[in-house]
Every structure is written in C-alpha cells, then in structure tokens.
Amino acid sequence: MSHPQSVFDNTSFFGETILSRRRQIIASITLRAQLEQLKQTGRYDCFKLKWHPIYDDKSMWPVPYHLFWDSDVAKWIESACYFLQREYDASIDLAVRELVDMIRDAQQPDGYINVHYTVVEPQKRWSNLRDMHELYNAGHLIEAALAHHKYYRNNHFLDPIIKYVSLIHCTFGTSEAQLHAYPGHPEIEMALFRLYSVTKSQEAYELAQYFLQERGSPSGQHGMHYFDWEAQQRKEDPYTRPNTYPERNSHWYCQAHKPILEQETIEGHSVRAVYLLTAVADMVQLHHKGGKTLSNPDAWAEAVSRLWTNMVGKKMYVTGGIGAIKQWEGFGCDYFLPTGTHEGGCYAETCASIGIMMLAERLLSYDLDSSYSDIMELCLYNNVMTAMSLDGKQFSYINQLASSDIDKSIREDWFWCACCPPNLTRLFGSLGGYLWHVQESETKVAINIHLYTTANLSYTTALLENVSLQQISNWPWDGHVSLDLSSQSRSVTIRLRLPSWCHEQFEITPSPALDDFSIEKGYLALQPSYTNVHKKFSISIGGFEPRYISPHPYTAQHALGIARGPIVYCMEDTDNPWQHNYFRDVALKKSEPISEEAKSMANGEDYIGLRTKCWLTREDISASTAGPIFDASIGEDTSEKSAILIPYFLRANRGGNGEMRVLLRRGEE
Amino acid sequence: MSHPQSVFDNTSFFGETILSRRRQIIASITLRAQLEQLKQTGRYDCFKLKWHPIYDDKSMWPVPYHLFWDSDVAKWIESACYFLQREYDASIDLAVRELVDMIRDAQQPDGYINVHYTVVEPQKRWSNLRDMHELYNAGHLIEAALAHHKYYRNNHFLDPIIKYVSLIHCTFGTSEAQLHAYPGHPEIEMALFRLYSVTKSQEAYELAQYFLQERGSPSGQHGMHYFDWEAQQRKEDPYTRPNTYPERNSHWYCQAHKPILEQETIEGHSVRAVYLLTAVADMVQLHHKGGKTLSNPDAWAEAVSRLWTNMVGKKMYVTGGIGAIKQWEGFGCDYFLPTGTHEGGCYAETCASIGIMMLAERLLSYDLDSSYSDIMELCLYNNVMTAMSLDGKQFSYINQLASSDIDKSIREDWFWCACCPPNLTRLFGSLGGYLWHVQESETKVAINIHLYTTANLSYTTALLENVSLQQISNWPWDGHVSLDLSSQSRSVTIRLRLPSWCHEQFEITPSPALDDFSIEKGYLALQPSYTNVHKKFSISIGGFEPRYISPHPYTAQHALGIARGPIVYCMEDTDNPWQHNYFRDVALKKSEPISEEAKSMANGEDYIGLRTKCWLTREDISASTAGPIFDASIGEDTSEKSAILIPYFLRANRGGNGEMRVLLRRGEE
C-alpha cells in the first residue's frame, strides 16, 4: 500500500502552476515562519521537559493551551522532511535534527513520549482518552518519524517511536488488564496503518484495528461506555463536560456514540470524523491489497461509503468545507449549511478539508471513481487553499462562505490551537502523492491521473523498470493537458479523470480509435493499444466556462454562486465598493452572462477574474419593522450593479474591509 | 392598573365565534381533563407533603420531574376560578376548595410554600435560584391566589400567600444579610406587580422591582454574578451545568448575562424572556399610571421596546411562534428561523406565544399601536390556538411550522413538564381582558378595541356610571363588525384597530364626517361627536382576501405561505395525498390565484379552506448523489398539483400521518 506520504517524491512539480507556486512559497517562506512561531511560543523547546509559564494557566478545561504542542512540532517536522526531499535547506535540516534529538531525550524509560503527561500531570497518563489528545499527539509523532525515516534514511527518530507504539500496544487491547479504549480524536489509527505499511509492524496494525473495532462500544469497559467509565474514574459529575459537549453524553462529538459499523450519518467534530474514516479506508485497502485479513470487510467498506455519501451530499459546502457548527467544530443535521455566523453558523475548518483529501485519496486507491477526485480537487482549490495567504505567512482556521461583523474574511499569523497551519504545509509537501496512483500487476502498469497540473511522475516497477509520465497544463485555468509517457518495456494504461462539471466534453489528440479507450466512473482509460503508439498526446477537457452553482434546495438557501472549472468564486468589498452589509442584499440571476478577465495578483500570480451583473435589493430590507410576516413581493425593488468576482482561494489578499460572500441571493429572472 | 386577569369579567362572550367555542370547550371538557391529569399523576395531592415515588427518580438533573407541580396546580386553580366566574361548576369549585386547603396546610410556620423543598430537599431552600424554579412556583401561587380572591371574594388563599411574599421579601434584597438574587425563570415579577395592583402591597412592589433591577449584575453577590456564586456555594465544578446550558456561563439562557437595561437583543429561553419583559412593561406602566416612581423610566421602556422590536422583526415565525432552538427552548441569532427539526430547529413553545400576548397587552396599555395588537392576534389565532385539539383534550408544547419523521404534527394528552396546557386554559379564562382597554379620565372615557369577535363589554366608571359596548362579528372569517354603544352621560371615544394587512381599507357605517375620526398608529378613533349621535354603527375591515406571505429574506428561506386576515394556513397530508416527504418538495407561486371554500370540521365548526395550484419538484432532489454543488437549474422539473390548505390552528384534528407544512418553497414565476 502506498500512501501519498510515502510516494509523493515520485512526483516532481515544475512550471508556474498554482500548486508549484504554493509549494515554492511554503518551502521558502512558510516553513521558516512556522518555525519562528514554534520558537516564539515555547513549542520548539517543549520536549526539553522544562516548565513553561503557560502550564500554570488553568483557565481552559479540559484542554489546556499547550496540549497539542507535541503534534504541532511533529507536523512541522513532517512537513520539513517532505520539503527537504524537494530541496535541501540547512536551517530547516538543523531544526529537524535538534527537535528529533529533544524528542528522543524526552522519551521515558518505558517508551512514553508526551509533554503534558510527563511535565504537567505526570501521574495521570491515559486517564482522559476522550479529551486529552494523548493518542492524537502520539499519532502525529509516528507520522513525523515516518517522514524523517524516509528523508534521512535512518531510524534515529523511528526507533524510539516504535518503542512508544509497543507501550501503547501493551496498554490498549482486549485483555482484562488492558484499557478497552480508543482516542477521543482519531489520528493515530491512520498513522499506525502507515507505520505498518512501511515497517510491517504487526503491533501497529493490531492496535489500529483494535481502536477502530472498539470505538463506540456501549459496554466496552466493565459494562460501560469507555468514556463514561473513565469519567467515573476521574470522579467527574455526570453533568460536568467540556464546552464542546452541548449536552451530557454527546459522544457523537467524537464519533463514539455507537460502533462505526452502525453509524448511519456522519456526526460531530468534522476533523475527527474524516481522520477516522481515512483510517477505516486504510484498513479496507490493507485487506484488499495489503494481505491483512479483516472480518466483515464489506461492512467496513460500506460504512465508509455510507458516511462519505452522507457527508458530500448533505453536509458539505460548495467550497468543499464541512462543519456548520462552531461549538463542536462539526456537522449539523442533514442539509444544515448556513454560510456564515450571522446565518447560524459555518465552520469549514481547514484541517477537515485536508482530511477529506486524505480520505478521498484512500477511496480512490480501491474504488476508482471521479466523484472522489472531484471532491478532493474541490477541497484543494477552495476550502484548503483559501486558508493560506499569498505571502505564505497567514492562515485561516475556519473558512466561512460569508463574512460578518463577528467573523470577517481575514487570516491570522498563528493560533493557540495551531493544527491547521502545519497541516497545510505537510499536505503541500506530500501533494505529489495525490496527483496520481500507479497500479502495478505482474504484467501491467496503470496510471490513474486524479489531479491535473504540471508535474512529472517517475515510477520504478517491481522489476526495476522505469515508467515516467509528464503532464503539462495551465490547470485549473484551462483544460488542455499535454502528456508524455516513457516506459521501457511495459504496457501502460493511462486513466484520465473527467470532472463531473466537464459533462464528458473532452478531446484527445491524436484521436484514439474506439477500441483504444473506455470510460468508467468518470475516468477515461487509454489502453496500451494507444499509449504504445502515442507516447505524446494531449487531452482538452471542457466545461471551463463560468457557471452558476447552487447549494442543495434542502439547505433552504435560495442562492447562486459562480464556479469555473474546479474554482469557486466570491465577491469582495474591495472590488465592489457599492455593496454594504456583507453582500447580504445582493442577488444574482442565472440567465445573466458572465465575462472573464485575465488578472494578476500583486505577487504576479495570474488568475481569471469574473464579471457579471447583479442586483442590490433595497437597503430597507435590513431595517425590519414589519414583524415576522413579509408581503411576498418585498425584495424585488432592486438596482442593477456590476459585480467583480475573484477565486475564493485568493480572498483577503488585497486589503479591504473583510466583507466577502460566495453564495448570493438568487434573484427572480 | 388593570390587568386582563383583573378585568376579564367586564367582558362576556356570546355567539358562535372561534373564541367563544374554545371557551365553551375548555369550560366543559378541558378543565376536567386537566383535573383528571392532576389526579392521575400525583400533582393533585402533592401539597399533602407525602412522599411520592417519583421523588426517588434522580435521573434528571438539576430539574427533577416533579419540580413544577406547584405551578401546575396553581395554574389550574387560576384557570378554574376564571371559568367559575363564567359559569358555576360544582365539581370544579370543590376541587379548587380542596386544593387551596391543601396548599394552606402545606405552608410552613415561617410562611414558606414549596413541595420540593419541603418534602424532598428540606435543607436546601434558595440554594439554586438559577435552576430550581422556587420563585417561579411562588409566582404562580400568587397568581392563583389573586384569581381565587377575585372569584371567591375572600382571603382564604391570598392571606397565606401574602405571608409567603413577606418571607420572600425578607430573603431577597439589597441588605448584606439578604440574597442578591432573582429567579432563573421569571414569573414572580409580574405576579408581584399584579399583587401590588390589587392589594397595594409595598413589599410586593419592592420585591418585583428589586428582581428586575438586580438581574444580570456581574458582581451582585460578594463581587460575583449571583448564579456563579450560588454554584460555588453548592460546590459545583464550573464545567458542571444543566443540559440547557450549551456552554458554561450561558447565563443568557435565563436573560441574566447582563443587566436588563444593557441587553441589546432578546436571548435565551423564550418563555423566560417574554415573562420577564411583561414584568418590565408592568413596572413602566405602574410608573406612568400607578403612581409608583421609577428611576430612569425611559430606559426601562426603551429596553422593552428594543427587545420587542428585535423579537418580532428578527426572531419570530410567521405564526407568532418564537424560539428556534430546542436545547435551550429559545432564540437563535437574528433571522435564524428554520421551520422544523429537519431544517435545524423550530421550537415555538405554546407558553412563549401566550407570554407575547401578555406582553403586547401591557405595551398597548401605555403605547397604543396596532403593531402590538397585530402580533397579539397573530399569536392567538396561530401559535397559541394550534396548541389545543378541537376536542379540548390534547395539547402541543412545541409548534413547528413543518413536521418531520422526528417531530410529527401531533398533540399529547399531557407532559411531564406541563406548563402549556394550563397556560392555555388560564389565557382563555381571562381572554376578555385582552379584547379591549377602557381608559378613563375625569371627563372622558375611551374604549380601545384590540381584538374583534362577538362579545359585550360592561364597564363601570369611577362615578359608577355604566358604559357598555357590544361587538358582533364573524371575525376572523370576515371583517364586518357591528358595534352598539351604551353610556349614561359620558362621552366615549372608540378606537378601532386597523390590522396592518387591511392596508387601511375600511368602511364605517353610518359614514363619519372628516372631523369625527382620526387614525393614529393603526387605530381609528371615532370621536364623541360621532358616538354621541351613532350608538349603533359598524366597521367593515378589508384585506380578507387570501394572500401570499413570506418570512424575512434574511432567514435565507425562499418560501411562501398563505394567510387570510390573521389566520396563517398550512397543508396537511390528509388533504393532499399526492405529497411525500412532508411537503418538502412542494412549491407555491405568488402569482397563482387562491380560491376559498366554506368548510366545517367534524364538530360543526365552520372555517374557510383554501385551494391553489402548487408544483411538486421531481422526487430525486432528495436522493443526493451529486455532492455539494448543484447545477443552478435543478429543481425546476415539476408537476402541477392542486393544493388544499387549512388554518394552521386546525391542523392535526382529522387523522392523517402528521405531515404538515406552513411555508412552502417559492417557485419561479
């Protein structure tokens, strides 16, 4: 099994695409800016296990400010190792080495590694699995160690981590002396499956599978739900609960309200949900391709599929964001997708959409279907990329589709809970692993292209033959992709994703014969009969005209947005000074033509801007004096305006007042 | 100051109006059915202070099942006394006498009366003002005693209650030995102001004013917020909280997040909010008309006005319901008004709309403006009346505008928290007090008519002259109202409400001269120059054509409903068997004509049904496979259907599957 984090270096990006530009910015700017944040905040030195003043701060319960520091450091190391593989950087290398040495020194004699439970509450290890992110932090350490192992080609970091995994393996499991527990915040499961894939550690596999199978058991520990049992051990009143639990026993917050196989809808904290499902997909994939037997594999595959379908069809924003509710950073009921705080919520956390990309990549590896890659791309170019400023120094954690006085369209340098910024960097570091999958059997090689850009794939087969494929395109601005295949002796099938919005408009040059290709579940497969003859060929994918989009009618939003290819657009106050009230009174009409304008950002990045007519409803709608009932004809007295739209991922880079909206009112034609 | 509960018996209903029918049903059926519930559940005997098995049930915290029993009994006594005044009923009279005797016997030597804190937790009086409804129960006892005093014309019940009020007056106040507290659930404030109005008890007035002035102080008790201080006294962990508190310190739940004068928007539990504001309006009115001085009276009046405006303009359903959120039975953010559980919520508690009627009545008494009476009527004929079945035996607590599998359109016999059923009966018992206000000055009498129906007003002036006014109408089905004034010597001004939906279409017969009338803030004033000449006259109010209505555009609902006069309509599955999915896929178009049909319910009650064309969107909208983005043209492939609508207040009386909806999708014209 080949995870993106393991095979990303088969891909090299080149040219001036959106993706290569961001990788360049992260390598040259972002990694250093984040390292500086680690140093300024105390994170860099935390594994020295000295007391830090912030540890005295008891104002937050149950999660103190420093609880995720281990993972912040780990995610930065992981990102750094990916980018070191791209291009050596002595200062980054030095920091990684220092950090790893500190982590090694922080390991306790029995293998345990965790800052909080070594320094702050040394007697309370494993006493609050629900809230305290101990296993989450361990998971990120595993991922960091795997990245380190891959780049440095030594076990300096991996060995202590394997020792830690052994300790965890002893601690959790089915025997009476073990805790029948699982992490409140899933993450370690996918880290463990990856560890297994790299090292064949049976402990890692068993532990991950145990966490997934035990999760949500109503009677796992002494006849009780584990989280209830451990709260009782902590002598907590049953009505004592974190702020994230709206009511007592809100175990759905961390997807532990029932066993995974019985969950019908995706619930709770959105990052936890997609991390968990990624691990389940890993387990299914290991059954199909990794030689691990799994009881009831179809039920596990169906659970992931069912929850994915619920998520993308009923709980996802048009930008690929998920999570409507701030309190639990997660899902509301089906179709509950208000687009901003003033409408009742919108969270759309950056990490959640990164998790969706991970999950989609796993699903694509055993169920090639463009509906997964469409969502992966939607997330990448919209909810994920909008979370970093063009200068690579600022980030957003929540990504609303409509700003308001309370939540303006802005970004921050850093967060006390800093999960998102290093998640962005590690995603972009391993992004090559998301572009394509290589499938190799004894006689055949297939390359499934999920994302178009400008990059080169170099793959070595089991027989040590080299297969390489180059794609050159100006994606996502146009749909022309030139491909250049090189393989020594093998026949290669190339499968090209046809995004749903292209409606199967495409043209291959040179034109293939009917027998040379087939289309299945949104992928066009070019057979060896074609690729053996045509090493250089191109595809032109259609559907790049700007188009009006809307959310599902059951969202009760009568709204229109505009998309072009995979890019969702927004309006910003800086382009549209006539607007007021965060574009709340602006309507689009779907019959109105949209024109394109070639534009550049201040840093030279080109993009396609859009312009159309819109209608500004009379201002007095907001001055409500009429009570709850409106005459149905109100709101039609509007004035025509010219609207300028910019890709959502470029929002908040050009000053302005932070007024932005993706979905506008849908005007009557 | 004359509260509806004090002057309702100046009004006698007659004829076969919607209102008189319901009063008849309550008198003959409902009071007995509720009495039977009191007896079956243990409430009837609770003041005997014996142990009841339910007191052992510790599964609910902090509010045990029996906590409101005192108020349930009190509200039934209050209702019973109002209806005894209408027509004597020996069994009801007997029950009232028995209950009052039991309450008298339950009084402790110091005056204290409370079942829970006498029987279950006798050492913990006043230890949890936030949650335990001790003062709320006391408030309802006061109201019951006032009703008893009015009907029985003795002090058998009122005397012990006055003693209890003295105890409370000693307990709460500004001095160091007193608690600087106020009730978590307001109610006692308005009861105390009414007690003052009847008895001139200074203790009652002072106590009510203190509760209002102290509420929300951030540092009232030893420098702390009272509710935080008392939780500390109870040794509660700061993160221990009732399920109704979504996060710790959610003191907005009970309008105690800041002093009332500083509150900018109406928040939290909706019943508490409107009960509280009713008391504030009482206090303002007592300043203007009751001879009580109040510091900063304009600020108090402005606070009520500000919060009323916020409520009716931004937080009220088209049916007069308030409260979108189930968890705290209260308000969401501005314009957050989903219409059912499947859309993200809708509570619209019966008691809350009854509270709005109380508040509107108080506001009308010092600020005559038809915007208040329009809302009062909207609540009465829609959210309030829909809460009782036609047979008078079943009730609803929440009144959603759209039902779903989770919350069907049904009613129940009773509730463990049974606040709503007896609130309906006491409202209808005192309803005469809401129809009109009589204003008397030395030389003038004015009668302000807020609600039209068929009823007679008989008023005795300070000089013991009789003024009477009869109105006969078929309201709310048509707008013709015949009036017949009789006064001995006084000149009488009659002010007639012009509902906003009549758009000032009216005709007075005989026609008044221009000098004979004026219109101000939605009331048409007929001067003595007219009424001295024309004792019998009539008004025909227009606007009874069925009309399309919509919620505010900022609710993000692109929806249409239909209203006729004050009546809001709904669709039910029983009339529209072609529908599926709770009318979620049905669209109305505002250009489509609506026809009327004279109909009768099985019990003989006539009503006007409506019929129009509607459009059923193709069913596959609900089968979402396309991900979060819809082609903007989806949803237009519809089939035309004929829709039958029935008044919302008549829903769920004719069988069917409980599928009902008020607001339908708004189709493109």
UniProtKB/TrEMBL annotation, chains A, B:
Domain Non-reducing end beta-L-arabinofuranosidase-like GH127 catalytic: 22-431
Alphabetized InterPro entries for the sequence: 6-hairpin_glycosidase_sf, Beta-AFase-like, Beta-AFase-like_GH127_C, Beta-AFase-like_GH127_cat, Beta-AFase-like_GH127_middle
Example GO biological process: carbohydrate metabolic process
Sorted UniProt keywords: Hydrolase
This protein's record includes keyword Hydrolase: yes
Keyword Chaperone attributed: no
Any one Gene Ontology molecular-function term assigned to this protein's record: hydrolase activity
Domain Non-reducing end beta-L-arabinofuranosidase-like GH127 C-terminal: 556-664
Domain Non-reducing end beta-L-arabinofuranosidase-like GH127 middle: start-end pairs: 447-508
SUPFAM superfamilies, alphabetized: Six-hairpin glycosidases (SSF48208)
Classification via Pfam families: Beta-AFase-like_GH127_cat, Glyco_hydro127C, Glyco_hydro127M
Protein name, entry field: Glycoside hydrolase family 127 protein
Source organism: Trichoderma asperellum (strain ATCC 204424 / CBS 433.97 / NBRC 101777)
